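Archive entry: two folds, one per protein. Generate the first.
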Amino acid sequence: MAEYKIKLINPSSHLKEEYRSFYEEWEASGEKMIPSVIERDPSRFEEMLQFLRDNEKGIRIPAGWVPDSPTG
């Protein structure tokens, strides 16, 4: 049996097309997007990346929320 290793990484500028493809495929499936952070439309990709970085640092998150966990 083959062994696979999976690593979660943060979206980045050089993965823009891959991320948009992932998003569009999931959206077309009609399935609920989980985790909810991926519901954010990546059409303004650099703004989305900044939003994710801010969430990781606890910047402009709703009261009572904790910062997102970093990956990698």
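Generate the second and append.
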Amino acid sequence: MLVGYDFKGTLILGMSMVGVMLLMPRMVKILIERLIAVFEVVRDFMQKRFAGQEFYILVSIQQ
């Protein structure tokens, strides 16, 4: 069948890929929503603390 997989292995691989493709965007959406909420709180705090100054919030996900 597919790269040396038998029929059962191909079905398992296909179902795993479907699961990843369905769940990954939902999980990323939840993560981004929470990050946006944190950024808004930080932005509000910084605007109150340092009124009139410009600042940027940067997030790096490098390991």
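Annotation attached to the second fold: The helical segments are 7-49. DSSP finds one helix and no strands in the chain.
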